[in-house]
């Protein structure tokens, strides 16, 4: 029979580990909160810089094409002008190569002058990056920014799955998971704009994502400190295991494939709720992209 002392020792060890985790979460959470407050408070739509995009697009697109072997299909399905809501699945943690690749491809295809914005989590804008994301049109995800962008006749890229989807385990790479978030449907209806679905695969292979850590986020109070409902861990160079992509990791050179789907006019949908229709179309297309892949990272 196991002694009560042995049981007490294990419970004490678990409590010590939990307390240590809560302390780390608190420090990381406070640091992230300060970063977010200090770096994104002045971000607005006018930070997008067509001149900067035009000057740097050639070498960045060359780099993305070489490193991620970018394959972007169906750009001709996007309306040539006017407001449009692009709805994508999200991959790659806080270092999101699919967003970078598509932003570069969009600007190369339509030109730097066409207004194009991407709604991103405040934390992404607060993290160190060699690329000034705000100059390419990345703005904090908010209803106000979304409406303002569409009212400027811009193309707007949104990721309804947000931090939940982007940190899903690597073995769920081919799954569209918006966690039931339907705000993009209301946005499209309110602004009377078409939805263009966008699917991408490869981002979840730029690291090994093995847990969202939502229970840990709740247990340690990290979700209250940062308003981020996950506390994910990844394995990637150069530091091995990282939490929330901190310290900043180097993404593995996974092949990124992106496919633009046919525009959807919500008024034309019959017999199926709009959310199920959009996510169903996206899931079918993402499954097809996944079936094309033969070897992780290599594509």
Describe the structure.
The chain has a seven-stranded mixed sheet, with helices on both faces. A three-stranded antiparallel sheet has the order 7-8-9, with no helix packed on it. It has 299 residues and is an alpha/beta fold. The protein has ten helices and ten strands. The model has no long low-confidence stretch (mean pLDDT 86). It has one domain (4-292). The longest helix is centred in the first third of the chain and has 37 residues, at 4-40. Helices cover 43% and strands 14% of the residues. α2 packs across α3 (97-110). β8 and β9 form a beta hairpin. The protein has helices at 4-40, 50-67, 97-110, 122-126, 143-151, 162-166, 183-191, 214-220, 222-226, 274-292; strands at residues 71-73, 84-88, 116-120, 138-140, 155-158, 195-201, 208-211, 233-236, 240-243, 257-260.
What is the residue-mean pLDDT, rounded to a whole number?
86
Largest sheet: 7 strands, mixed
Strand content: 5-15%
Q: Between the first and last Cα atoms, what is the distance in angstroms?
A: 54 Å
Could you state the order of secondary-structure elements as H and E? Answer: HHEEHEHEHEHHEEHHEEEH
What is the CA-atom radius of gyration, in angstroms? 20 Å
What form results from the Cα inertia axes? globular
Main β-sheet, spatial strand arrangement = 1-10-6-2-5-3-4
Strand segment count? 10
Output the number of helix runs: 10
The amount of helix comes to 40-55%
Number of spatially distinct domains: 1
């Amino acid at each position: 029979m196991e002694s009560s002392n042995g049981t007490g020792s294990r419970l004490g060890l678990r409590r010590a580990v939990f307390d240590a985790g809560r302390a780390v979460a608190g420090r990381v959470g406070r640091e992230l909160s300060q970063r977010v407050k200090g770096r994104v408070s002045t971000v607005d739509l006018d930070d997008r810089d067509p001149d900067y995009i035009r000057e740097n697009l050639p070498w960045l697109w060359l780099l993305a094409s070489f490193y991620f072997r970018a394959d972007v299909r169906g750009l001709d399905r996007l309306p040539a002008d006017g407001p449009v809501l692009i709805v994508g699945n999200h991959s790659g943690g806080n270092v999101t190569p699919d967003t970078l690749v598509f932003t570069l491809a969009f600007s190369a295809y339509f030109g730097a002058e066409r207004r194009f914005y991407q709604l991103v989590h405040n934390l992404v804008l607060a993290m160190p990056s060699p690329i000034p994301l705000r100059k390419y049109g990345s703005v904090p995800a908010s209803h106000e920014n979304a409406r303002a962008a569409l009212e400027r006749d811009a193309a707007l890229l949104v990721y309804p799955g947000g931090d939940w989807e982007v940190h899903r385990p690597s073995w769920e790479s081919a799954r569209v998971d918006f966690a039931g978030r339907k705000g993009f449907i209301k946005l499209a209806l309110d602004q009377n704009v078409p939805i263009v679905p966008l699917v991408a695969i490869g981002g979840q292979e730029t690291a090994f994502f093995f847990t969202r850590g939502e229970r840990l986020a709740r247990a340690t109070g990290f979700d209250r400190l940062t308003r981020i409902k996950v506390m994910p861990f990844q394995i990637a160079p150069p530091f091995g295991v990282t939490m929330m992509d901190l310290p900043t990791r180097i993404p593995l050179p996974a092949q990124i494939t992106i496919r633009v789907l046919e525009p959807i006019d919500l008024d034309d949908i019959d017999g199926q709720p709009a959310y199920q229709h959009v996510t169903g179309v996206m899931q079918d297309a993402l499954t097809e992209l996944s079936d094309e892949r033969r070897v992780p990272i290599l594509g």
